[in-house]
Amino acid sequence: MNSKFERYPGLTLALKFIGHILLFVFLTLLTQIGGVVYLLSLLLAKRLGLKARRKKVLAFSALYLLANLLIVPLIAPLFGREKMKEFKVVRAHSVFYKLANRNYVRPELNKAITAIAEDFEKRNEGIQLVYLDANFPFIDGFPLLPHLSHNDGKKVDVSLVYEKEGKISNKKPSFSGYGVFEGPTDREYDQIAVCKKAGKWQYDFPKYLTFGRINRKIEFSAKGTRDLARRITRQKEVGKLFIEPHLKTRLGLKSQKVRYHGCQAVRHDDHIHFQLR
Ligand SMILES: [Zn+2]
Question: 179-194 pLDDT, tens per residue?
Answer without folding.
Answer: 999 999 999 999 999 9
